[in-house]
Amino acid sequence: MKNLKYILVLFALTAFMGCEEQLEFKPQQSLDTDLAFANGQAADGALVGVYSGMQDLEVMGSMPQLISEYMADNVNFIGSFPTLQEINQYNTLSNNTSIDQLYEDNFEVITDANFVIANTATVDDPLFSDEQKTQNIAEARFLRAFVYFNMVNLFAPPFNSPGGPNAAALPLVTEPFDGEIIEYSRSTVSEIHAQIIADLDFAIANLPGINSNRGLASSGAAKALKSRLHLYRGEYAEAAQLAGEVINQGDYAAAGDLSFYPSVANPEVVFGIINTAIDNGRTGSGGWDSYFSPAEAGGRGDAPFSADLLATYDANDLRVTSLTEVSPAGRIYTTKYNDAVNNTSDYLAIRVSEMHLTRAEALVATNGLGSAAEAIALVNPIRTRAGLAAWAAGDFADAASLLAAIRNERRLELAFEGHRRMDLLRIGAALRQGFAPAAFGADKTILPIPQREIDINPNLAPNNPGY
Fold first, then answer.
1. Residue 33: pLDDT band by 50, 70, 90 thresholds?
2. Distance between CA atoms of 20 and 37, rounded to whole angstroms?
3. 441 with 330, same domain?
4. pLDDT of 26 over the 80 cut
5. Domain region containing 44
6. Which end of the chain has fewer CB atoms within 10 angstroms, the N or the C?
7. Distance (Å, rounded) from C-alpha 280 to C-alpha 302?
8. DSSP state of 316
């Protein structure tokens, strides 16, 4: 008989299936896996648990994405939590409890995904077909890839930094717990990326092109995430190819106006995290709606626009004239997340507009002005729905100016969606201009492995530079 047993990987395992009512394990306890995968319905429930984990505040419920915005130059962070102020001010310590929780919760989702991946094929249920088993495994592998992708971006140097491919990153845990205590070492950035690619390739091969519910994994979403990975690696031909496949798939289309926020249920969205008033990632410390909404609207008001970001928008840009609200203190907030009372705003984790911008950037980075016409055609629908004039080829003197314009458009379009930090680091740019601790390559642009994990498992040492 197979058992799921308590095992120490890097943290105390506190969740079994990622559901809101979590099971807490004692070291001597075990849970019968045969029960968890007794039939197809139970196996589906285990997969739902992984999706539920993705809603968690510290996974895709806003915290990592918020950090990625305010470590860079999009947000004037005014929050009161000392641990978040520490990160914002680049005074981060390795015992930062917000980082501890983020690290633990993301590995819990990886743990849950591994459980599904390892056990779904063993389900003995004539109503649960091999095809459905494979699809469930593919969905879990997509979710595991997404979590590892987000984590490696936070806890390891970017791939294109000096020594980046071989830099120590994270423990690579792909097997379910079997009762053996394993003190994992940190795998390299390249090794983590290789696993992400393998998981996404499996998802691409075994998932439908689009899921009827855009909050569920699909082949299109896996291609889009893989395109983002190649963009971050500077592998522009691969990024352009995959982004083009998503755009041309026929299932996604750039919205004609900005009314698609904040719902996953529209053709603009490739993949998103669905929230409801009774099922979302909000905790006592915040969430998408809370962090990005002013106190007067019921939010925390921690994350208004920075002056730098505001100055970058054209005065007539609808993304700042119609997708914002002004607090009595004069601070400007996005309304991409606009329900701080009930926290029902979805997180649009991958949008087809991102694929337009990715393909445009990658084409110009590869072919220069030889791809200007296609690149401009990809960006113009995004500009015109924002109320801006369409670009023409004559607007750009050279490839460098066009490339810079596309990257700036990416900043304006994807603001507050968690992209800004890596969009700067992947091109070797400072996270904030004129602030030495935020310079490219500075130690604390990368988060530390939590000290408690190193204390438990010395194989994780040494920590990242500066910690």
1. confident
2. 19
3. no
4. no
5. 1-207+437-467
6. N
7. 19
8. T
Tens of pLDDT, residue by residue over 194-241, are 999 999 999 999 999 999 899 999 999 999 999 999 999 999 999 999
Three-state SS letters, 385-414: HCCCCCCCHHHCCCHHHHHHHHHHHHHHHH
- Euclidean distance between CA atoms 154 and 133, whole angstroms: 32
Q: Which of 345, 361, 378 is the last residue of a domain?
A: 345
Domain finish residue from 326, 345, 364 = 345
* 142 shares a domain with 5: yes
Is the bond into 437 cis (omega within 30 degrees of 0)?
no
**249/320 Cα distance (integer angstroms):** 31
Classify residue 264: in a domain, yes or no: no
- Kindly state the average pLDDT of the residues 154-176: 97
Domain contains 263: no
Total number of domains constituting the chain:
2
Q: What distance separates the 2 farthest-apart alpha carbons in the chain? A: 70
Q: Output the domain CATH number for residue 83.
A: 1.25.40.390
pTM: 0.93
What pLDDT does 32 receive?
Answer: 60
- Cα torsion through 126, 137, 17, 7, rounded to 10: 110
pLDDT by residue (tens digit) across 81-138? Answer: 999 999 999 999 999 999 999 999 999 999 999 999 999 999 999 999 999 999 999 9
What is the per-residue pLDDT for 34? 76
Whether 176 and 302 share a structural domain:
no
Q: Is the pLDDT at 12 greater than 60, yes or no?
A: no
Res. 4 pLDDT band, cuts 50 70 90: very low
On whether both 318 and 467 belong to a single domain, the answer is: no
Do 163 and 26 reside in the same domain of the chain? yes
For residue 219, give both structure tokens.
Answer: 């082949």
Question: Is 195 domain-assigned?
Answer: yes
Q: How far apart are CA 339 and CA 354, in angstroms?
A: 24
Residue 418 is encoded by which pair of tokens? 């968690």
Work out the percent of the chain whose per-residue pLDDT is above 70.
Answer: 93
Q: What is the Cβ-side half-sphere exposure of residue 289, based on CA atoms within 13 angstroms?
A: 24
Q: How far apart are CA 255 and CA 326, in angstroms?
A: 25
CA distances from 456 to 77, 142, 287, 422 (A): 33, 29, 30, 30
Whether residues 27 and 172 share a domain: the answer is yes
CB atoms within 10 A of CB 178: 12
Mean pLDDT of 20-31: 35
In a domain, 418, yes or no: no
**HEC string for 142-195:** HHHHHHHHHHHHHHCCCCCCCCHHHCECCCCCCCCCCCCCCCCCCCEHHHHHHH
Task: Classify 195 in phi/psi space as left (phi over 0), alpha (psi -120 to 50) or beta.
Answer: alpha
Strands 324-326 and 332-334: antiparallel
Does one domain contain both 162 and 297?
A: no
